[in-house]
Structure formats: structure tokens, C-alpha cells
Design goal:
This protein is α/β, with parallel strands linked by helices. It is built from 15 helices and twelve strands. The protein has a seven-stranded mixed sheet with strand order 1-7-6-5-4-2-3, with helices on both faces.
């Protein structure tokens, strides 16, 4: 079956007890058993739940994985992957990554004796150069958060195979609709299903997908032991959202391209980060590795933090908020929001400056999105010129 069909049907057969077409919400903590060791496949909902099982099967099908595991958040999923590490192990990571991932690396695992090296995300040779005998994992995001660099998954997978390391790819930004890392040689895919897979900004969740049975067994053990699982209702919401992933992603991509082109020509914008633009240094890799360029656009002001504040206060369609991937458009200031846990010197060195903004471009009419950005940028121009914004005053 093709992707859009799998999103609607994989793991979601009609309920055998009632014929319900849509997977039911099995809102139960426990299950009645027929006798000692005699049950219908479920014992306790931390260990397994039919609604969650349907979600796990669907997500595995979308990533072309043998196994899927759902979690109560993206960081719970990441924690399960990282649970295989022991003191003395070494991890290589791309240097542009989500602040929450950096936080668990540096504030949780490093004090426990795990070491980390960060390398330029797009430079394959840098991963190979950073390998040590104790290297256990290579962790990458692609596109990266928030600067939207690309990692050559197949090339880094070859490095991992050569040195016996496990390649983890955070596929949250691209989604399996645009990119399937396991097909390119990665061992494990992680998602914040909060984002595009759910797509409606009404649930928090995460997932791990893999075809490696040994890793799956380790992650499954941790899932049950630590208990960071989604509720049946949260699982149902994500499963519902996944049904429309294909059609939503097509509109996200189309709108993001329009927004990126608009920003790329604006005099107040110093730089635009979007792999769909031919000027992006990873544009050729994006065309080869992805089926489209995604719904995330980042840009840097040619101005000050005060200009950024004027801009975000003037937005009317875009909402200033953390998160991404919903049907509505969001604007995020990474330095003070998603990446605030990274020390300022390190943020600045990586390019996450005070004038960088990250847009999650929704599926509204792109003309309204561009008009909103245009009028908010106009407020900045008026403020810099000390010209009253009469249009804003009238509103």
C-alpha cells in the first residue's frame, strides 16, 4: 500500500467485537484474565493497550519499520533510546539540535559518566573523525532544529556501520511522509508525535521505530519499566492525526516555500534557512534525500532583539508559541524558548542568536500568512524610523 493508505489503515482493522470502523479508545487500566497465564494479549495498560498497539503498528508501517513503540512525550521516547547507554559510553551528535535533547545529554547523562561530542551537523567527515572505541550512538536531526541544516543519512549510516555504532535519527521535522531514515541505513527513528504526526496541537507524545529486534527488546523493556507511556485517549488522538499526515504535509510544504521566498526578498531579513531554496547549502541533498522540503522556515533579522519583539507582538495569524507541526502557524524565538537550556555562548556559537526566529508554517491560506508577516515586518520598519504605525493604532 502507498503511504496515505497505510496512514489510514495500517494497524487499524475494524474492531472484532463491535465492527467499529475507527479504533476504539480502550480506556482501561487492567484486563480480566481467564486463568493463570491465560489472557487475551493484554494484562496491564502500562505494559500494553489495544489503542496504543494500533498506533504503534501504524507508525511502524509509515517508517517501514518492523517495530514501533509509543511514549508519553518525545523526550520520553528519547530517554528510552538513551537508556542503553552506560558510564563510559560515548555519543556523537550534530551540533544543531533541539534544546531538550541537549539538556538530557548535558544535565542528565554527562553527570552519569556518558560523554558527548558535537560536530557540524552537515559534515559527514566530522562524524567519522569523532569516533572513539567507546562510541555507542550517533544522534542526528535532519533537518536540524532550528537552523534547518541537513545530514546525509546514508553517509553517516555508513560511518556508524563501519565503527559498530547505532545511528539514531530524529525525524520529527521531516516526518515519514518526506523522509524514511531506516530505508537509508539508520538503526532507529525517534519522533515527537506532538508535532506533525498528530498535527493538531492537542496532545503530547513520542515514538521509537526500528527494525532491529535486539534494540526493540531493550526499548520495550524500558518502556514498561519506566512507564512513560501515552494514555489510550492520547494514543487515539495521535492515531487520528496520522490519518491526514500526507495531505497536511503537502500543504505545509507548499505554504513554507511561499513564506521562504517572501522572506528571502525582504530588506529586514538577513538570512533565511529553508532547504527548498536553491541558495540553501544543502538544497541538493534535500532534493535527493527528501520528497519535499518541509513546513519549517527559520530566519534572522537584520536588526536587534527589540526589533524581534516588535515583530512578534505585531503578528495576528502566526501565534508566538513553542512547539510546531500543527495546522495553525506558530512563531518561536529559539534563544528564549526551545533552546533556552543551551548556554548563551554555545547558542551564539551555533548560530542560535537573539534575532533568529523559527516559523512552523501551518495550512492556512498562504496569502494570509505572507500578509501577516509583511505587516509585522512593517511595524519594525516604522519603529526603526520612528514613524507611527497608524494602521496598528486603528486596529
Amino acid at each position: 500500500m502507498e503511504f496515505a493508505t497505510r496512514a489510514i489503515h495500517a494497524g487499524q482493522e475494524a474492531d472484532p467485537s463491535t465492527g467499529a470502523t475507527i479504533t476504539p479508545i480502550f480506556q482501561t487500566s487492567t484486563y480480566t484474565q481467564q486463568g493463570l497465564g491465560d489472557n487475551k494479549g493484554f494484562e496491564y495498560s502500562r505494559t500494553g493497550n489495544p489503542t496504543r498497539a494500533a498506533l504503534e503498528a501504524c507508525l511502524a508501517a509509515l517508517e517501514n519499520a518492523r517495530f514501533g513503540l509509543a511514549f508519553g512525550s518525545g523526550m520520553a521516547a528519547a530517554s528510552a533510546v538513551l537508556s542503553v547507554l552506560r558510564p563510559g559510553d560515548h555519543v556523537i551528535a550534530g551540533d544543531d539540535l533541539y534544546g531538550g535533547t541537549y539538556r538530557i545529554f548535558e544535565r542528565v547523562l554527562r553527570p552519569m559518566g556518558v560523554t558527548f561530542d558535537y560536530v557540524p551537523a552537515r559534515e559527514t567527515a566530522a562524524y567519522a573523525a569523532a569516533v572513539r572505541p567507546e562510541t555507542k550512538l550517533i544522534w542526528v536531526e535532519t533537518p536540524t532544529n532550528p537552523l534547518l541544516s541537513l545530514v546525509d543519512i546514508a553517509a553517516v549510516a555508513a560511518v556508524a556501520r563501519e565503527h559498530g555504532a547505532v545511528l539514531i535519527v530524529d525525524n520529527t521535522f521531516a516526518t515519514p511522509y518526506l523522509q524514511r531514515p531506516l530505508d537509508l541505513g539508520a538503526h532507529v527513528v525517534v519522533h515527537s508525535t506532538t508535532k506533525y504526526i498528530n498535527g493538531h496541537s492537542d496532545v503530547v507524545g513520542g515514538a521509537i521505530l526500528t527494525s532491529d529486534e535486539h534494540l526493540y527488546t531493550d526499548f520495550k523493556f524500558y518502556q514498561n519499566a519506566a512507564g512513560g507511556v501515552p494514555s489510550p485517549f492520547d494514543s487515539w488522538l495521535v492515531l487520528r492525526g496520522a490519518k491526514t499526515l500526507a495531505v497536511r504535509m503537502r500543504q505545509h510544504c507548499e505554504n513554507a516555500m511561499g513564506v521562504a521566498r517572501f522572506l528571502d526578498g525582504h530588506p529586514l531579513v538577513r538570512a533565511v534557512y529553508y532547504p527548498g531554496l536553491p541558495s540553501h547549502p544543502d538544497h541538493a541533498l534535500a532534493r535527493r534525500q527528501m520528497t519535499d522540503f518541509g513546513g519549517m522556515v527559520s530566519f534572522a533579522f537584520d536588526g536587534t532583539r527589540e526589533d524581534v519583539d516588535t515583530f512578534v507582538r505585531g503578528l495576528r495569524v502566526f501565534a508566538l508559541a513553542e512547539s510546531l507541526g500543527g495546522v495553525e502557524s506558530l512563531c518561536c524565538h529559539p534563544a528564549s524558548m526551545t533552546h533556552g537550556s543551551i548556554p548563551v555562548e554555545e547558542r551564539e556559537r551555533r548560530g542560535v542568536t537573539e534575532t533568529l526566529l523559527r516559523l512552523s508554517v501551518g495550512i492556512e491560506d498562504v496569502r494570509d500568512l505572507i500578509a501577516d508577516l509583511d505587516q509585522a515586518l512593517g511595524r519594525v520598519a516604522h519603529a526603526d524610523a520612528r514613524i507611527p504605525d497608524t494602521a496598528a493604532a486603528a486596529r
